[in-house]
Amino acid sequence: MAKLNTGFKRWSLDCHDVSIEVMEDLGLSAMDDDSNSCSNPSVKQVVISNIPEPAVKRKECSPFAVPSAVMDFSEDDQSSDSFLLSKRMRMDGPPGIDGFSRLSDEVILSIFKWLPKSTIAKCAQVSKRWKRLCYDEVLWRRLDLSGTCLKPTILGSVLLRGAHILRLAKTEICDPIYPVSPLLQEFPRYRNLQFLDLSMASISTQGLFDLFDTCKNLKKLSMEHCVVDERACKALSQNEQLEVLNMSMCYGVGVSELKWIVNGCKKLDSWNLAWTDLNSEALQLISTSAPKSLERINISGCRTTLKDEHVLALCQRCPKLVELDISDSTAVTSICVSYIHDNLKRLEYLAMARCYNVPLSVYLVFQKSGLLYLDIFGLLTETMLGTLRAKLPSIEINKFYFSSVARPTVGIRRTSIWGMKVRE
């Protein structure tokens, strides 16, 4: 190729004879070649020192360093990491500062109210302050432990926290109730319990005695299907403010047990003794010594022991009765209905289901009374039921299948006892 004679530096296209000037003009430098592929050994390897340095310098790594693909971050990566770090600091707060320490006790208690009781018990292990707040009686006023198994001393710990409303239906309660004999002077919170449901609970007579001996401010109690003895009923009689007592299907109810209750619980309003296998002596004690404040009583299930004279004595002893259930008493006669009509002027509900010795015509005596409900299941055919309803238009007949006297729950409601919620 012909060479141009100009004022500029000359260069050639021959790849074997590349001048340093041409590479300087292009801003390039020659690289070392270890392959010895160049045929001209006389050509020197040249490095241009005045090539501009890169904007970001990489540090030289030792042979034992982490590869650059792992350690080298771009500016974008560094900015994203700093954003995540700042976001995390905003969420968690500055290191070494507890956000809860700035809150008042009232605010923390309002937060703890939304937690399950098992979670609150775990929170008590965080610090001394949290333990004090977690054991505040505000968090333990209402408690539902139904259907669980309480290991020894657990129930005592719950009562020590100041429970007011406690549901223990179908709960297995292991002895002992308390770790040591409780001193009421040192732990007055045992007296806070007022509403207790022990329906179908598995608890020993010793457990009942320990429980009633410390909780002396009970107002409503249900121990349906529990086993009682004289010591437990004696301790129960110390609850002078007791208004509602459900002892239906209890075992061990006799004259000695009933004496303590009728002599100590003078303010009883509702009492359920259905299917407790009461003998004639126990029925005589109830009909002559029951609290005069009684308004509702259930003594059904006394198949052959309840007599007309017992009903007469009870009506004269408790003239304020509003609800009376003597179902499944096959020994009573029509005279019993006359006793009820003449003495119980405030009666609104009467249950005499399966009282087979009482003729149906006797119930017509309630035509001009204040009776609202009459349950006489097992005695009427559909035709007879229609005829009786026509003659007693102001009375609803056979409306309730089960008695609700002193029972804590009625129907399918299981989150409350006697109309009071057991869960926050």
Describe this structure in words.
The protein is built from 14 helices and 15 strands. With 424 residues, it is of the alpha/beta class. The chain has an eleven-stranded parallel β-sheet with strand order 1-3-5-6-7-8-9-10-11-12-13, with no helix packed on it. The protein is elongated and about 85 Å long. The protein starts with 19 loop residues before the first helix and ends with a strand. The N terminus is likely disordered.
Task: Write down the overall geometry.
Answer: elongated
Mean pLDDT score, rounded? 81
Using only C-alpha atoms, the radius of gyration works out to 45 Å
Distance between the termini: 100 Å
Low-confidence stretches: 1-18, 34-52, 54-75
What is the helix/strand order?
Answer: HHHHHHEEHEEEHEHEHEHEHEHEEHEEE
Q: How is the largest sheet built, in terms of strand order?
A: 1-3-5-6-7-8-9-10-11-12-13
Largest sheet: 11 strands, parallel
Which short descriptors sum up this protein?
single chain; 424 residues; alpha/beta; eleven-stranded parallel β-sheet; 15 strands
How would the blueprint of this fold be written?
Blueprint: H1 20-26, H2 68-71, H3 75-92, H4 105-112, H5 117-123, H6 128-134, E1 142-144, E2 149-150, H7 154-160, E3 165-167, E4 172-173, E5 195-197, H8 205-214, E6 220-222, H9 230-236, E7 244-246, H10 255-264, E8 270-272, H11 280-289, E9 296-298, H12 308-317, E10 323-325, H13 334-343, E11 349-351, E12 373-375, H14 382-391, E13 396-397, E14 416-417, E15 420-421
Helix pairs in contact: 8-9, 9-10, 10-11, 11-12, 12-13
